[in-house]
Amino acid sequence: MASPQEKNKAHGGKTPHRGTDAKHTVMITGASSGFGTHLAKAFASAGYNLVANARDEAKLATLKSALEKSRDSKFVGVIADIRSAEGLEEIKAALAKQNVDVLINNAGVNPELQGHNAMSEVSDIQNVIHTNLSSVIALCTSAYEYFSARGGGTIININSVAGLKGNYHEAVYSASKFGLRGFSEAVKDEWLKRGVRMIDVYSGAIATGMSSHRADVAGLIDPSELAEFLVGLCKTESLFVRELNVQKTGNRL
Prior knowledge:
By secondary structure, the protein is of the alpha/beta class.
């Protein structure tokens, strides 16, 4: 059986992302707000270079300023909308240009949380499916092609418990997350054979972003704690976690 070093030579001599001996780079979509900012801070604190994607240039500049003041990490902003073909191409190009080791598909929308009626307009439904599913599949596939050619890499999909059990009050959102789960399960084992690890995070409500309006927000999952936990999952050598089912404990201090 070929050693990891021999496998790396077969893929151009590049070492896949593992451990902490060298500076690594993480790409985060939807990095300028919500859980994305906590992911950016956690990975920067762990010494990663950041490739941060967002649509809002001002918010991205604010994040860059905050991180560069206290972290010795490179920050590259990619201002692009993952819902557009042009935006997706910009993000895909940044994967190789910035030598990304970890892709985190974090961007997502859930307009049903703000409304009380079922979504019936095709354009609204398409927006949710395209943002949460179609664009993520496209990025995953591009990342796989890039990572497998260079010897390995990690993809983290920020899914939801709604991808495990549908919720009547967010039916379209649940459908988009079930779709992502199906795609991941279909490719995960084959991609692993090429050194590409895919980790799916099925999280309950996080105390930021989509859930920030909730009355019980103080008792929800701590976004910083979860982000720091995900950093650790990117450093394992002999194992990887296929998926996480994350629940709140209700014991936040």
